Every structure is written in C-alpha cells, then in structure tokens.
C-alpha cells in the first residue's frame, strides 16, 4: 500500500474530485500551480479557486461533462502562475464507478513541458518542420477555441431557454400573486366588515353584561334588604346559593355551597324540610308551614319550585319569614276576641256586632232568645234581612245610615216596632262605632234594651 501510494504521488497527475457545482470532495497531488484560494469567505470550490486561464474552460468542460456524461479534454491552456505561464491540458471525467461516487466529476491537470524554440535569424525562414508544427498548434488552438465558442453558444441558448421559461413562470407567478393580492384585498374588506360586526356585538354584549351585573346587584341588595332568609337548591337538593339571613336559621357558611341539604344542621324544629322539598319537586305545589326555631321565634317556611325563564323546573326555593311578632299579635287578638266574646255573652240585653256593610258578625244568646231567631239565619246576614225582613225598620235605617255615620256613639235611640210572632216592642238602641287601626272599615256595636214591660208598668 505504501508503494502504491508513493507511485501515485510520484507519477499520477494532480486532480480533484468535485460535484456538479464544483464543490471539492477530494484533492490529489500538488494542485497549487492550478488552484489558489479565492479572497473572502473560505470556500472549497474548484471554479472559484481556478487560476487565470483555467476558470472559463473549466466551467465549460464541467458543464459539458455533467450534462452529456462524457469525458472532456481541453489542451494547450496557458495558466498564469507567479513565475509566468504554464501549458496545461485539462481533462474532466464523469465518474461512473464505484457506485457511491456516481454523479461526481474528476478534474485532472496535465502539465505540458514547454520546448524552447530558437528564434530564427532575421530574414531567415522557419524550417519546414517547425512551420508545420506551429501551424498544427495554431489549428489545434483554433479548434479548441471553436469548441469553446460552440459550447458557450449552446450554454447561452440553454440559458436563454431557461431564462425564457423562468420569465414565463415569473409572469405566471406574477398573475397568481396579483390574483392572490386581489383575494387578500377582498378578504381584508370582509375581515374589516366582520371586525366591525364583532365590535358591535361586543358592545352589545358589554351592555348586556353591565345590565346583568346591575340586575345581580339589585337582586343581591333586594334579598339582603328584605331580611328574608332564602335558600336555592338544585333538583338533587344541593345548595346553590343562600342569602346572609339564612345563616340565622341554618348552620351555613360560604363553603357550604355545593353540599347536600341533608348534611346541614337546622336551627329549627323542622326535621321534615328535606322530605317536603322532595314533595314539592314531585307535585310542583307550593307548601307552607309555620315552624318554631331553637331560639323560640316563629318562622313561616315557604317551599316552591324554582322555574327558569324557559319555564323549566330546576330545583326549589325555600324562604323563611320571621312571623314572631305576627304570632304574638294573633295570640293577643285571640285573647282579645275570647275576652270580647265573654263580654258579649255576659251582657243580658241583646247585643249585635255589625261590620261596615251592616252584616251581622256576632250576636249574643240574649238576642236569639228575645227575638226567637236561630244563629244560622242570623250570622253574616244583612240586619235588614233578619227574620223575614222583620228588622227592616225605618227608624233603625235612620239610626244606622244617617245618625250613626255622623256620630261615634248614639244613646237611647227609641224604636217602636211590632214583630211578627212576638208582638209590639219598644226598644232603646245604644250604638257605638268602633274604629280599628289595623282595619280601614269600622265595626258597629248595637245594644238593644227592651223597655216594653217598663212602659206598660208606667202606664
């Protein structure tokens, strides 16, 4: 191997292996006389590194070898070196073997030894042999020049065709770009229109958001201001939301949202709350119940279905209203009513309680015994209709419709009337108009004193 390497270095001509662009893959031998590095960024390209006299012919030969796949020999090239000129035969071979080097090109430099020729003496003709040799060299150089020129013409034609094809492609690309530009302009206008629509929709949505925020604030303030404990549950009785007042009757904190109602302890004597909520979801009927709290206060629990704006049942709403004061008022009214009824029953004279429309609200036992009428034909009847209209007395009408409206109290109003089945009666009527602050219409107390026997005794 060393002997073979020594023989190659000693007798093989300098050469380089390049690709179709002239980029160098391998250098053999001393190529300094034919190649030199180009100024600027370092590049191993044989066309850029070729010395003067080689560059043009090497470019042409390389193009021919690559395009036609055949070897090219260019003889008699004069290469400028530092010491003068060298005569070089340039050989370009297309590599076909081995397979892994297929497509590469080998550029071989053959240096031709120059023979010194004696200049003939002035006036003497060149020897015939020398003249023929000189003519042959000129002819060979002319042939080489013609070949170079033909190759250059072919390259120029190829370049012109390529330029023409490229020009057509550029024109086509220009038309496509123009069409694309028009489409882009159209798309830009459409996008601008869509952007304006989006801005309008965005403004509308912002207004809706502001309205929803205002409505939410109003609702929150309303629920807080009414002091009504409200609890919103889902169809599974999961806590969705509750008002701050709800914490007074149910052990709730903010993190209880999302928990089932059954997990929450109540401050009420109402263990059936969850079951009643399920019944409301099943029947969709409102349910109310008065319950007592652990603090001794009374509440009105109202359970109703939660209906969306689309009229879809989506849970239940539980409200809890403190009715402790109303409860106390009812008990006080009940006690007062029991007390008043006791007074009414205690009075020995007939006593009638009328409403503002002169209908009988209450009478005592003395009235039924004196005038012999049953309670079923008396209560809630117009006083003039009692006992087959036997109470339709002009003097009584005058008292109730003229005298009493102008006075709070009337005493000893005399009425003489003969009652069917009872006989004549002389009565002293004492009436009083009672005005309740909680009720706009007054109540009339009518006491009837039968003085018929007194009058007969006096007579």
**Contiguous runs where pLDDT drops below 50 for at least 5 residues:** none
Over all CA atoms, what is the radius of gyration? 64 Å
Helicity range: 40-55%
CATH topology of the domain at 346-458: Beta-Lactamase
Order of helices and strands: HEEHHEEEHEEHEEEHEEHHHEEEH
Span from first to last CA? 178 Å
Order of strands, widest sheet: 2-1-5-4-3
Number of strands: 15
Q: What oligomerization state is this entry in?
A: single chain
Describe the main β-sheet briefly: 5 strands, antiparallel
Q: What share of the residues does DSSP label as strand, in percent?
A: 15-25%
Helices and strands, with pairings:
Elements: H1 2-11, E1 15-18, E2 24-28, H2 46-49, H3 55-68, E3 72-81, E4 84-94, E5 105-112, H4 128-226, E6 229-233, E7 239-242, H5 273-283, E8 287-292, E9 298-307, E10 313-322, H6 324-346, E11 351-354, E12 360-363, H7 365-371, H8 386-389, H9 394-406, E13 409-419, E14 423-434, E15 443-450, H10 452-458
Antiparallel strand pairs: 1-2, 1-5, 3-4, 4-5, 6-7, 6-10, 8-9, 9-10, 11-12, 11-15, 13-14, 14-15
């Amino acid at each position: 191997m060393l002997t073979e390497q020594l023989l190659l270095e000693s007798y093989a001509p300098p050469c380089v292996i390049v690709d179709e662009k002239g980029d160098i893959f391998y250098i053999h031998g001393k190529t300094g006389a034919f190649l030199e590095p180009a100024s600027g960024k370092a590049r191993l390209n044989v066309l850029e590194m070729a010395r003067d006299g080689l560059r043009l012919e090497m470019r042409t030969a390389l193009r021919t070898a690559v395009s036609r796949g055949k070897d090219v020999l260019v003889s008699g090239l004069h290469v400028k070196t530092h010491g003068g000129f060298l005569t070089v035969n340039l050989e370009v071979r297309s590599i076909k073997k081995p397979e892994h080097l297929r497509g590469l090109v080998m550029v071989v430099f053959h240096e031709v030894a120059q023979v010194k020729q004696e200049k003939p003496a002035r006036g003497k003709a060149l020897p015939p042999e020398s003249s023929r040799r000189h003519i042959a060299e000129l002819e060979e150089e002319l042939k080489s020049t013609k070949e170079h020129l033909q190759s250059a013409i072919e390259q120029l034609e190829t370049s012109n065709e390529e330029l023409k094809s490229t020009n057509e492609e550029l024109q086509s690309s220009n038309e496509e770009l123009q069409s694309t530009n028009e489409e882009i302009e159209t798309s830009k206008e459409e996008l601008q229109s869509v952007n304006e629509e989006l801005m309008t929709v965005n403004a509308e949505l912002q207004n809706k958001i502001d309205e929803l925020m205002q409505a939410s604030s109003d609702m929150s303030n309303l629920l807080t201001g009414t002091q009504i404990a409200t609890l919103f549950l889902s169809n599974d009785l999961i806590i969705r939301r509750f008002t701050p007042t709800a914490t007074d009757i149910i052990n709730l904190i903010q993190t209880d949202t999302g928990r089932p109602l059954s997990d929450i302890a109540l401050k009420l004597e109402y263990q059936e709350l969850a079951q009643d909520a399920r019944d409301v979801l099943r029947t969709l009927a409102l349910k109310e119940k008065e319950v007592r709290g652990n603090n001794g206060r009374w509440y009105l629990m109202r359970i109703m279905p939660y209906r969306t704006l689309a009229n879809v049942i989506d849970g239940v709403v539980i409200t809890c209203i403190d009715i402790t004061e109303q409860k106390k008022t009812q008990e006080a009214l009940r006690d007062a009513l029991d007390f008043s009824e006791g007074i009414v029953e205690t009075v020995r004279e007939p006593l009638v309680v009328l409403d503002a429309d002169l209908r009988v609200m209450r009478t005592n036992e003395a009235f039924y015994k004196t005038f012999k009428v049953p309670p079923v034909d008396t209560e809630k009847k117009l006083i003039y209709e009692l006992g087959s209209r036997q109470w339709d007395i002009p003097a009584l009408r005058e008292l109730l419709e003229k005298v009493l409206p102008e006075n709070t109290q009337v005493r000893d109003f005399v009425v003489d009337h003969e009652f069917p089945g009872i006989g004549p009666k002389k009565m002293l009527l004492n009436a009083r108009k009672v005005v309740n602050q909680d009720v706009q219409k007054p109540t009339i107390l009518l006491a009837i004193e039968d003085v018929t026997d007194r009058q007969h005794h006096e007579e």
